[in-house]
Amino acid sequence: MALIISLIVIRTLVLGIITVMKGGEGLKISKRMTLLLCILLVAIVAAGCTAARKPEVNNTKDKVTQENRQAETLAREATQVEGVKKAYVVVSGNMAVVGLDTDKDTKKAEITRIKGEVGQRLRNADGQINDVRVATDANTVTRIRNISEGITNGKPVSSFGAELNEIVRRITPTKE
Does the keyword RNA-binding apply (predicted)? Predict the structure, then answer.
């Protein structure tokens, strides 16, 4: 858009200079026109380029910060469940992917109870979350922890897309 406006301004000024030059005072007025043209072009280019870039950076950063705070809150909520030593949470949209550290000698029935209770508590704690995926196996918990730490360090969730999709595909959602 700025390029089109610039071209129209240049064309108009060039036609004006030619017209004035035919009148005999072309040299004096053409310096003024040239100065005006330069000032106008710099203003148009500066205004056109800076406005388009700012919102994208802020929106992405704000979204990462919001999801990061949301994940920290949900992780604290998950650790309130009896049997959970540590929780790692990654939030993506309306889904929370949770990795839980539990005692190694916890029985399978107890793990199932813990997963269900964590899922219910997280849905109750945050109305935006309607899909909770909980993992307790060491490998998956480590992967979720690494993603969570990467997001905490400023990386967007989208940079972990492939790995997060793989994890989500393997974990069944907790029941409501």
Answer: no
Task: Read off the pLDDT of residues 13-56 as tens digits, 9 standing for 90 and up.
Answer: 666 655 555 555 544 556 676 667 667 666 776 666 655 544 44
**What is the rounded distance in angstroms from the CA atom of residue 69 to the CA atom of residue 75?**
10
Whether 158 and 108 map to the same domain: the answer is yes
Q: Is the dihedral of CA 62, 64, 70, 76 positive or negative?
A: negative
Total domains present in the chain? 2
Domain that holds residue 145: 63-170
Residues 100 and 84 sit within 8 Å (Cβ to Cβ): yes
- Both tokens assigned to 151: 């997001």
Tell me: the pLDDT tens digits for 81-139?
999 999 999 998 899 999 999 988 889 999 999 999 999 999 999 999 999 999 999 99
Rounded CA-CA distance 1/64 in Å is 32
25 with 51, same domain?
A: yes
Residues 114 and 130 in one domain: yes
State the Cα–Cα distance between residues 60 and 140, nearest whole angstrom. Answer: 27
